[in-house]
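Board work, copied verbatim: Branched-subunit amino acid aminotransferase/4-amino-4-deoxychorismate lyase
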Amino acid sequence: MMELNGRPATAGELGALASHNYGHFTTMRVEDDRVRGLSLHLDRLQGDCRVLHGADLDLDRVRHLVRRATAGGPPVVVRVTVFDPEFDIARPAAKANPEILVGTRPVPGDLPPLALGTAEYERDLPELKHTGLFGPLVQRRFSLLGGYDDVLFTDGRARVTEGPTWNIGFIRDGRVLWPGFDRLNGVTMRLLERIAERAGIPSSQAEIDVDDLPGMTAAFVTNAAAGPRAVRSIDGAELRVDDPILTTLRREYAALPGDPL
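↓ predict structure ↓
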């Protein structure tokens, strides 16, 4: 189901998004009219809207539209996309009138641990959750064709950054390490940082090179749809999927009640 400003979207209205792919979004999991990290999702939408459209977003309207799309239903994954149907590629700095597209899809079931392959790739404006997904997805395609489940990006200095649609965390020597360069500051990652602090688990950002990967005990990817998901290998090097720190993070994340819409 997909609605633009609370009504079914037409093909014409989606034309600018389909043709130019200029916009931004956030993805959240809605259960019992609650969202984990709702304020972080709304802050992201507001900040990205100011950068890409030069406009403020009505966040109460966003909440209303998400409630409308999910009211009384089962748990779903909601994507809120903000774009201007009148966007002109010749005048991208023109005054924008961003609109709100809300789509839903089923919550994924239990997902198995991932086998990742690394590839050098850097997203445009990685600090923004924008709709420019061609590069990340074609890299995912290449990784799948190579026999992996997904791809882990590195930058031009062989530093680990992120995946196509997720952050990654590592566990080594009893602490959680997050790549600290050229990646999205993901909502689920930020929630897990808070969980680690409350649980007394050391957590920090670090420069993680490809050469550091064989020394990691465990790894996990994070996004709002599935939460923390174990990684079983990177470039063929096996990782522990039952690490006790990861078990704690997964349990405590699942227990978060979420914020009311």
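The chain has two domains: 2-106, 114-260.
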